[in-house]
Structures are given as structure tokens and as C-alpha cells.
Amino acid sequence: MVVGHGYQEDRNPSTCPTISRMTVTLLTSQSTPTATDADALVIGMFQGTDGPVPVPDIDDIDLMAALTALGATGKPEELTKIPTGGRLATPVVVAVGLGAAPGTAQDPAERLSYLERLRRAAGAATRELTSGRARRIAVALPAGEPDEAEAVTLGALLGGRLMHWIDLAGAMAAHRHSRNYVVTAAIDHMDFWVPVHVGDLVILRSSVNRVFRSSMEVGVKAWVENYILDDCKHVSSAYLTFVAVDAGGRCIQVPAVIPETEDQRRRYDDAGKRRQMRREHLERRASPR
Description:
By secondary structure, the protein is an alpha/beta fold.
């Protein structure tokens, strides 16, 4: 899975290195990282009591012996380059230090610290390699969970994961109002205004704006809060359409929404206008050109 391309054009060669094209690949399966033919393979290295612990381990070369000979310890962001001598498709393995291995039961603070270490390790290895001749870098850091992989690649939340959370928040509001199963029928246009970094708090608020017999329009708004800096920003908003169904998957009628406040009446009226716009859009798509 290619996760990033870097370009530097029209640069002054005396002030910075020229990278004609650099591709960073995140290996989603770490069981066979040696199959990559990239210019360099980046792996992790935990700081163990008896010395560095490479993750994932590679049977084709004696990593432990090489790391010990090169004086590696596994401390955070420590870089150790190990030539493979032709025993792997990639010419060099780069072990980057991750510090102590995370516990099996991490509290939120420990998990946040580990995510930050992953992000910094990936960044340190990539910067080191792109300053040389490497053009294709494969990253096989121990990222078993989706948010860990996102921390490795970007240091930020992927837009697709935020869309998933927005879908869940909308479904919860629709389910709570209808008291029945609901399925996602449509989602309107979305923009992402600011990034969500590792360690930020994401706040989602959803409400059923209007019911159209068996379908419901739900509005969801997402904010990102950096509670250290006491800063809160609007990330994205979306309008989703859900349909209530019974256990057999048949559409069922939903109780109407009765707006009471001025804001609720505004959202109720706007939902009707948006529904009309969606219908007109569907008719234009269905009509022959």
C-alpha cells in the first residue's frame, strides 16, 4: 500500500538535497517483510533488559548479532543501519529505536506515549533515508491497530476513519430516535478543515433533523480539541440519511420529529430543502443526456 509520495522541484542544490521521487510503503502484513524489494526496510527495535529486541524479527539475517556489534540499544529514535549482504531483496535494514515495549494492558496515557514514539520513529527513519540515495522505503514498524498505523504514516487521523466515526455517531442518533435497526442510505459532501493529530480529543455531536416516513436526516458535527493548549476547532460536518428497518430488512415508519426551539425549526426546514435538492440531483442523473 503506497502511502506517500514526496517531490522537490526547482530547488537550489546548494541549500537542500534533491529528491526526484520518493515512495514510502507501509507493510500491512509484517509476517513477510523481507519480500519487499525497496531500497531500505525500516523495522522497530524495543529497548529490552538484555539488549535491543527487533520487531518484526527477520530469520534470514542475524539481527541480534548485528545490532549488538553495532552498539544498538533500542532507545527512542536511535537508528542502526544493517547491510543485508544480498541475503534479502532489500540492500539495507534500518532498525529504529522505540524505547520500552508497551504493556499488554495500556492505560490511555501509555498508549498515547507509544503512538507518539511510533510517529517519531517513522519520521526519524524516513528523514535519514531520504537524505541519501533511497527512493523506495518500506516501513514495517509494529503497528497492530489502525490508529497505530495512522500514527506511523501520518502522525494524524485518516479522513476515512473520521468518516467512519461520523457514520457511527449518526447511526446512534437515528437508532435512538427510531428505536429500531437503521442502515446508512446516503451521506452528503464532506470537507476536512483541520487535521486531527495524535493525542487530540475528537468531539462528535449528532441530531435527527427531520423524518421522512422511514428515512431520517441526521446532522453530525466534529470538533478537535487540544486540551493542553485549550484550543477547539471545527473539523468537519456531514448530513447523513438513514433508513429504519425491521429484523427482516423491511422499511418501517419512524415517529416524526417535532421541533421546539428556533434552532431545531431551522434544522427541520433546512432538512426539507436538502431532501428536495437530493431528489433533483437524482433525477438529473437518471435522465438521459
